[in-house]
Amino acid sequence: MPRQYNHYGEPICEDCNRAFVNDRALDQHYLSSSCHSWCQQCDRDFVSDAARRSHWANSSLHDFCTLCDSHFDCWQDLEDHEDEEHSRCSECSQLFAGPVGLHEHSRQSHARLYCTDCRRMFRNQNEWTGHRNSSLHRPATVPCPSIKFGGNCTRKFGSIADAVLHLEAGTCSSGMDRRKVDRYVLSHDRTNIITNPNQRLIGYTQDNSPPPRYHATSEAWSHRYQAYYCVLCPPAPNPRLFKNTSALNQHLNSSKHVYANQGNADKLYRCPNRDCGHQFALFSALVQHLERGSCFQQLYRVQQTIGW
């Protein structure tokens, strides 16, 4: 604001009707007097401290942290301060004084993406649902179904899909694997409620020969992706990539490629909800779809069909 001077050349404070020996003394008066709410940088006096604070918070001339009333020399310093001392919401970028405020905000404003137990935000609803349905939040109460095949495995799982995946992976002491699971389901689903009437696929599941064994070599290295890739999975648009041959070999010899002649487009299973239309290569994938998706009410049809 324009300074006013008396006839002696002394700066004066018109509000207080006082004269000062120099501008520095007047500045000190503005800073220390309870009668003024002065912004030194802009040389402006405000009607109240609240008005001055609003000016600091909203003016591009100031790099001001509203959470701790601190000024910074530049916006980079302000951003560094906010990242180091405060908590920012990854979903809406709103800033909070600390993790407690951020947690309450996330719990109330982003409940569909935020796990309150883990204090973790997810990128979308599917990721949140998958997390909430994981073993972290679902007690292991589903027994291994190998008893249906004469097995005596005592392991328990957080979901039916996890129990089926355990069988398909060949890790069950009963000796079950993906092909045996497929044969069992096909033998019970005579009317194709959950299986596709595809005789070519059924032929694969009836094959009693040992599952193929694969061994990756350096030829599987992709210079384009700088990683090893699976030649049995679809090459585009997103090829399956691995950091080393050990990881690739584990994938190649998993239940994913248990059928030597089966193309990746072949999907034996289908959702019993005919309005859905989803199809799946693995029985565990079908069960997971029913457990976690909008077709949940159809799960009982699967259980009735296979007798689990």
Automatic annotation (TrEMBL):
Question: Which segments cross the bilayer?
Answer: none
Give the UniProt keywords, A-Z. Metal-binding, Repeat, Zinc, Zinc-finger
GO MF terms here are: zinc ion binding
| A Pfam cross-reference name | zf-C2H2_jaz
**Xref: SUPFAM superfamilies:** beta-beta-alpha zinc fingers (SSF57667)
Q: Which InterPro entries match?
A: Znf_C2H2_jaz, Znf_C2H2_sf, Znf_C2H2_type
Which domain of life, per UniProt? Eukaryota
Q: What is this protein called?
A: C2H2-type domain-containing protein
Origin organism is Leucosporidium creatinivorum
